[in-house]
């Protein structure tokens, strides 16, 4: 048994339920950060993944670790010297949540797996959440987080990111470059104090990235938003996404979509053959 596996023995956190009155304000602020064309909230319905600006935790300042991330939390694995990344997830929407109405989220630990990848040993933690409003189940979500233990390695493979816009033949396309202001505003909106997103000396010197890291949730949203804008008549009912490589502020990326009858394959490219994020979006 590896040290990582040993540290997880007996870890079995209980489910937790929280509620949110779903004020429209966070959604309107998110629309500004994403530069979403009007109308933002048709019939008050939250677009797919926009619930990420709700149900937020604001731990006391003293309860944050040196990385800005909470030092303790229900679904944070007891891994020594923990380093975390958002790796992917799946969302099924039966009926969208509506703003201006209390909604409830129940989260539980779904799955823990220690795996060995190109970057060494890591633990994948999947958290499953059910969202209810007006007594009905509206969405089921699974989110995969990856945790590593120990000091950051030198990430020399990231240092040579190209500085040109990637090109692709996909039907839907949108250019995107993360900049520090947008990353800061997205961190604030998602109550994410992780320093890799806004503290460049920390990102470079401590976590050894070549720059600020673009949020995984932001990349996932760019993909669903491109699909939503191009298929306004068909509501999105499923999203399955994976974050494959970190993206850094200043890196020109291309968000692409290749539609099919009832789904679309989405990617974020940092070079024509480098997929940094991918998603499959299903239309109802
Ligand atoms: C995830 C990394 C570390 C895998 O690392 P790797 O490349 O070394 O892995 P691999 O060699 O591709 O695969 C190894 C195993 O892992 C599995 N695997 C591989 N990927 C996934 C995935 N997504 N979900 C589930 N499983 C996955 C894969 O299927 C395989 O399993 P197997 O051995 O059973 O076949 C690597 O792909 C990576 O660095 N991705 C980018 C992560 C990223 O940049 N996230 C956004 C920034 S962090 C963030 O936003 C955070 C936030 C918001 O601040 C906050 O929550 O705190």
From TrEMBL:
Its EC number is 4.2.1.153. GO terms for molecular function: (3R)-hydroxyacyl-[acyl-carrier-protein] dehydratase activity. InterPro entries: HotDog_dom_sf, Mitochondrial_HTD2. It is an enzyme of class 4 (lyase). Residues 1-22 are annotated as: Disordered. Keywords: Lyase. The keyword Iron does not apply. It comes from the Bacteria. This is 3-methylfumaryl-CoA hydratase. It comes from Halosaccharopolyspora lacisalsi.
């Amino acid at each position: 048994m590896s040290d990582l596996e040993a540290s997880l023995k007996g870890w079995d956190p209980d489910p937790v339920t929280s509620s949110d009155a779903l004020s429209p304000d966070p959604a309107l602020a998110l629309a500004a950060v994403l530069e979403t064309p009007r109308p933002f909230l048709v019939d008050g319905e939250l677009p797919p993944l926009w619930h990420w600006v709700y149900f937020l935790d604001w731990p006391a300042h003293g309860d944050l670790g040196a990385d800005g991330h909470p030092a303790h939390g229900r679904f944070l694995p007891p891994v020594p010297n923990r380093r975390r990344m958002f790796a992917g997830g799946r969302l099924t929407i039966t009926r969208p949540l509506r703003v201006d109405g209390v909604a409830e989220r129940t989260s539980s630990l779904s799955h823990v797996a220690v795996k060995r990848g190109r970057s060494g040993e890591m633990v994948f933690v999947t958290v499953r959440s059910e969202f209810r409003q007006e007594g009905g189940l509206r969405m089921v979500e699974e989110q995969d987080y990856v945790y590593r233990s120990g000091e950051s390695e030198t990430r020399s493979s990231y240092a040579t990111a190209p500085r040109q816009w990637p090109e692709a033949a996909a039907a839907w396309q949108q250019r995107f470059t993360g900049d520090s202001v947008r990353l800061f505003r997205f961190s604030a909106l998602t109550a994410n104090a992780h320093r890799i997103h806004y503290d460049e000396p920390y990102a470079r010197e401590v976590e050894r990235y070549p720059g600020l890291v673009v949020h995984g949730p932001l990349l996932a949203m760019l993909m669903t938003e491109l699909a939503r804008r191009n298929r306004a008549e068909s509501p999105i009912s499923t999203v399955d996404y994976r974050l494959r490589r970190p993206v850094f502020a200043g890196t020109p990326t291309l968000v692409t979509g290749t539609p099919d009858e009832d789904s679309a394959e989405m990617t974020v490219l940092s070079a024509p053959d480098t997929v940094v994020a991918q998603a499959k979006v299903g239309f109802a």
